[in-house]
Amino acid sequence: MKRRNFLALAMSTLLLAACGQSTTTDTETTATDNAATGGSDLLQRINNGGTINVGTEGTYPPFTYHDQSGALTGYDVEVTRAVADKLGVDVEFKETQWDAMLTGLDSGRFDMVANQVSLTTPERKAKYDKADAYSWSGAALLAPTDDNRYSSWEALKGLRTAQSLSSNYGELAERYGAEIVPVDGMAQAVQLVKQDRADFTMNDHLAILDYLKNFPDSNLEVKLVAPASELRGSGLVLIKGDDEVVAKLNEAMAELQADGTLTQISQEFFGEDISKQE
Hints:
Layout: H1 2-36, H2 41-47, E1 51-56, E2 65-66, E3 72-73, H3 75-87, E4 90-95, H4 101-107, E5 112-113, H5 122-127, E6 128-130, E7 135-137, E8 139-144, E9 160-163, H6 168-175, E10 179-182, H7 186-194, E11 201-204, H8 205-214, E12 220-225, E13 232-234, E14 237-239, H9 243-258, H10 261-270
Parallel strand pairs: 1-4, 1-5, 9-10
Antiparallel strand pairs: 2-3, 6-14, 7-13, 8-11, 8-12
Helix pairs in contact: 3-9, 3-10
């Protein structure tokens, strides 16, 4: 009996070892097969004329918003649609708040983000890739017309600014020593400034000019604007590591620049070409 038990145990051990070896081989084979099929899932969808999922706010005019008919539009939205046309794919926009934008990218809810994103911190540059920029702009500060405290950026120290916690502008305001009053987006930030619950807000200069054009009686005005040397380029952002996808996006963007499409979309929303760094 002892001899039979020993033999049974030995056979079981051999079987388990064989199973383990087989599992490892299968995993390695699957990884090899995936690599041979053409790269990432996103790349395959682009190559096969599938659908790309793009995160955007939908509440950030003139870049991403809903027109009077309720349709999603805006500069970033229309540029993304033009890129999709060049790639021969469909695009599905998924709207979300700014503070959830990169989280949605991390979780795979979006393939990329189109929302005036500039990778300004080492942490973001290490984690994300940005395709070639389709717009160039800089920060501007919006405050009540009768508030004369804004002689320089250094004057922001100790003042309250309404900002999204993870925005580039919030980072800039903190760098100058301002106190952050958290908001979900620009619309709420402007309201807090008008209600004196914040001293100012910072945002993209073009977005602020668009707001003032639509609300000329707001009693707010631009107090400070970043110099030309500090203009940032915004582009489609995706998780780092999909180099072939980035190359395809850059190729499409170059074609849109060359054929005048980016200039045309810029003129439609801003009355000037914001697609070139000048």
